[in-house]
What does this fold into?
Amino acid sequence: MAAPIIRVGNTDKEVSKDLCQFVIDKATSSIQERGTFTVGVSGGSLVKYLCNGLPSSKTDWTKWRIFFCDERHVPYDNSECTYTLYKTGLVDKVGMPPENIFPINPDLSVEDAAVDYEKKIRLVFPETDIPRFDLLLLGMGPDGHTCSLFPGHQLLEEKTRIISPIKGKADIVQRVLEGKEEVLLPAARVRPTNGDVIWYLDKGAASKLKNI
Ligand SMILES: O=C(O)[C@H](O)[C@@H](O)[C@H](O)[C@H](O)COP(=O)(O)O
It folds into this structure.
């Protein structure tokens, strides 16, 4: 792998401008070469950078196909839904055909939504086992996570599936409450010398606990 290229902007505006110019250049060359531009996007600050900079750009939006590198399993009207942020902040603004953006189906279970999403991707990349997108735009969180893949998570070892479901807190709840970790996770260090610790969990978060 070639060494990473690092580009630093002095302000958010500069970062957005530089990034969006790169995306548009990539879109132009992909559309020229193959007739479409397939791009995967993430959530977080990337949404702001893209939605601020892209709408005023010149490109053939009908040739774009937007997928999600990670997405939260929430209804479209939830403020945490990355799809809706791009739909309102980009797709609707530029008049891109709504079928050119591919959301997950939050009405399905997390597992079924992952299977369904893989099918959606394969329809756009019918001739290949491992789809190759023209561009994948990833963000990184303060702990180094990307695509909802957190440090030490077992999904980091996944080598075959192209889409995997990840159940938010279930793994970490199990580690905090039942793990035998040498270095305790922050939440596992809540140990009052005088008083109780009470966890209120929804079913999903509690789903990996063995001792309840
Ligand atoms: O669930 C995720 O993994 C996030 O949605 C991810 O897509 C986001 O890119 C990072 O969390 C970075 O976010 P910031 O750019 O806001 O730091």
In short: The chain has a mean pLDDT of 94. The chain has one domain: 5-202. The two ends are 46 Å apart (CA to CA). Residues 42-46, 70, 139-141, 145, 147-148 surround 6-phosphogluconic acid (CB under 6 Å).
